[in-house]
Structure prediction request, 743 residues.
Amino acid sequence: MVKIAKFLKPFILGLVMAVVLLFVQAICEINLPNYMSDIVNVGLQQNGIEHAAPKAISEDGMKLMTTLMSESDKKLVNEHYMLVAASDKNEKGEEYSSLYPKAGSMLYVLKDVDESTLDSLDTAFGTATWTFINVMKDMAEKSGQASQEDMTSVKDVDISKLYAIQPVLDMMPEQALSSARDKALVNDITILKQSGVMLARAFYKELGVDINKIQTSYIIRVGSLMLAIALLGGVATVLVSLLSSKISSGVARNLRKELFNKIENFSNREFDKFSTASLITRCTNDVTQVQVFLIMGIRMICYAPIMGIGGVIMAVRKSVSMSWIIALACIVLIGVIMVMLSIALPKFKAIQKLVDKLNLVARENLSGMMVIRAFGTQEHEKDRFEKANDELARTTLFINRVMSFMMPFMMILMNGVTLVIVWIGAHQIAESALQVGDMMAFLQYAIQIIMSFLMISAMFIFVPRASVAAGRIDEVLKTEILVKDPENPQSFDESKKGLVEFKNVSFRYEGAEEYALTDISFTAKPGETTAIIGPTGAGKSTIAQLLLRFYDVTEGEILVDGVDIRKVRQKDLRRKIGYVPQKGILLSGTIESNIKYGRKDASHDEVETAAKVAQALDFISEKPEGFNSPIAQGGTNVSGGQKQRLSIARALATKPEIFIFDDSFSALDFRTDVALRKALKEHTGGSTVIVVAQRVSTIMNAEQILVLDEGRIVGRGTHKELLKTCPQYYEIASSQLSREELA
Prediction:
């Protein structure tokens, strides 16, 4: 994937924004269980009372609590509480009597303090509460009165009964109180504060405070905050999805564009390296794999670690004693993921090659349908396709079956973890070592952590296949193009316009042991026709491809207008040449768009003239829509002869200096062939014409005929000269012409 990371550069800003939004989304989701815990612990269990240190307390209540406190806690409380009259007003101008209707003439009110001081006060009141509970337990044990045990509950305590015990506490030795405080400090700080809150509720009730109002207000406030956080997280999720979609689609678009541009510049050597089916797969399926990886990866690769790490931190904060459950679950999960991936990974790497193979078979079947039907081999081709298709299906099914075990295992693991957390958490709640809300939050964090590992494991599914696809794309992009334009291109010599010269040209195909052409030298002059003839495989078409610079010569040089074609731009060279290949190739569109393909600005009259010279005007005029008649993909709705004539018309419409007809008359009948050659002779005028042909009758009137055999020129001259001097030409001519024509 690093190989194509450069394609992410234009989207760096969007990528950074997506990562920031993922942090926002993760933080929102991590905090929601924490607020849910507060609603349960504070809103429901503590009636919305957040602090063990009450905002106001009666004189009797203050005396009771300070009696149970250490000297340092007493000092802290005395510093931050002030004794006021109920008729006095607070900072907001409200009378204390309206806030605390059942308060006596005097009460203690908490001053404005910072969070740190308030936390210390909560601890002081919580410790005092548990000191009182421990004192009651000791008194009950000593007296042997079991009924005294109900005095240890502070949840629904009768405050008047607590005040009745004040004389006993006053007479109690400091050592006993100190021992009770030491026992209290053994408890977790959270439990101390929660118990202190229960006693604070009793003090509020004594003062006539509406506890239900406090509870409702707290739940609405925290609930509203949770809704806002959930909404923020939802907005972040939508924006991340939008950004990841735009980034992945943009990268895919740029990859396809880069691939297409690269392939467009391939010479025939590069096309020989890659199959057409493979190039199609790389431009489509492989790019799609990278796109899917990006759209999932941007969201998961960043999001899952944040959630996992954040979940672990928050879970440990809620309960250190149960953190081993998460650790064990993660170890088991990682082990199972590694086993599954070790089984599935090799198959992932094979899938793209199997897609290539399937595309190759499908393409061969579709393009060669007429041949397949003609030879009645449909069943054989069906078997080929089924074999390739079944192999891909089996591999895909194997991967899917292996990965299908993941979800059931995840459900078992999550349910198992839930059961263990509830079981252990319930015991800790019973022992006052854990709060209900904290257990619920811990459970949610555990599920978040496991889901984070599941998301990371899912990325291991996408990464191998996307990595293989990226490698295949990079292989095309990094392929060195052997035929390329020079850094300092030269201009053509206008004084030698249309002149073609082959000087000692030899050529060997990539990987071939023998030369396809050896020491080829000839000159094709403007206004003349140079014909090339020879047996199949002699190298006739190779000469045409070398002149067009589809390949570069191995040895020697080719000159056009007096300049080596390797020293000019390919575009400039090919603009001078009108090429008609052996196999007429038409593109989807209309007849007119195909003829104008090489010269978009050609007028309708020029198009019509080109069609007339190519002997295509007759069949075009017979069509209802004429030049606007549609051409199907590959020209399947016209005959082979019509396809060749339209290809010739396309070359004529460009008005080139040089024409190359690579066996372009083979599909024409003799009458059309004769008429076409006659019209061409008149139309091409001063252009250089190079004709590659199998028919002797097509080239009889050429000014120069080259006879090729096994890649060498074995004859050169006119038709009559070659009949006398070249046995190979005479052999070809005698197989096609009558004795009278040979005379």
Q: What stands out?
A: The longest strand covers residues 500-507. The domain at 582-655 is CATH 3.40.50.300 (Rossmann fold). The chain has 28 helices and 15 strands.
